[in-house]
Write a structure and sequence with these properties.
Blueprint lengths: L7 H17 L13 E3 L4 E9 L10 E8 L6 E3 L4 E9 L9 H6 L2 E8 L4 E8 L6 E3 L6 E2 L4 E5 L3 E7 L4 E2 L6 E2 L5 E4 L2
Antiparallel strand pairs: 1-14, 2-3, 2-13, 3-11, 4-10, 5-6, 5-9, 6-7, 7-11, 8-10, 12-14
């Protein structure tokens, strides 16, 4: 419309903004291998850290291995289930909006904690964390849902973070700095 009325000075930036929005909200199909004890990453992005927690932290109170993944504005932000099981608990927490690549984002930012119990009674926790620009977390599952590996479960708008807590005896297959794809990259195996 802006091109028709010869307002090119507005038409070009609006066209670029529209294309960026379409690119950001893309939802690519992913073909994953589904092995029984395999855990897939729930988010596209870069592995920021892998930590062994002996006493848990603010999101998870037990021993665990915590994998933090940063999603830049260039990643697809559709989140996927890392391993099939039953959603045991969901807990939403309002908060601040620090840059998601900073550790304090994990502590203070708006977040949604999802606890999944696998078919083998293992507990996996994953946390959607909003970032500086992202001001909305969408979660499409509820407590009691049975979910499948790779199933889409939510979305965090714009740059954000996702953390995964695996049992301490899990075998981790990714390293800090690796790029991962939701529902496709194997991050570990349960024992």
């Amino acid at each position: 419309m802006l091109f028709i009325i010869n307002w090119k000075f507005l038409a070009i930036p609006m066209a670029v903004l529209t294309l960026l929005t379409i690119y950001f909200f893309r939802d690519p199909e992913r073909n994953q291998v589904n092995k029984e004890k395999m855990v897939l990453t729930p988010a596209d992005g870069k592995v920021l850290s892998i930590e062994k927690l002996n006493h848990g932290d603010n999101h998870f109170k037990d021993k665990a291995i915590k994998i933090s993944i940063f999603m830049s504005i260039f990643n697809s932000h559709i989140n996927r289930i890392p391993i099939r099981g039953n959603i045991a608990q969901l807990s939403y927490h309002p908060g601040k909006f620090f840059s998601a690549n900073k550790d304090k984002a994990s502590l203070y930012n708006e977040h949604n904690i999802i606890t999944l119990e696998t078919d083998n009674r293992k507990k996996i926790v994953f946390v959607q964390i909003a970032g500086l620009i992202a001001r909305r977390i969408a979660c499409w599952i509820k407590k009691g849902d049975y979910v499948e590996t790779g199933q889409r479960f939510g979305l965090i708008r714009l740059g954000s973070r996702l953390e995964v807590y695996l049992p301490p005896d899990s075998t981790i297959t990714v390293k800090k700095g690796w790029k991962v794809k939701a529902g496709q990259t194997v991050i570990g195996f349960l024992s």
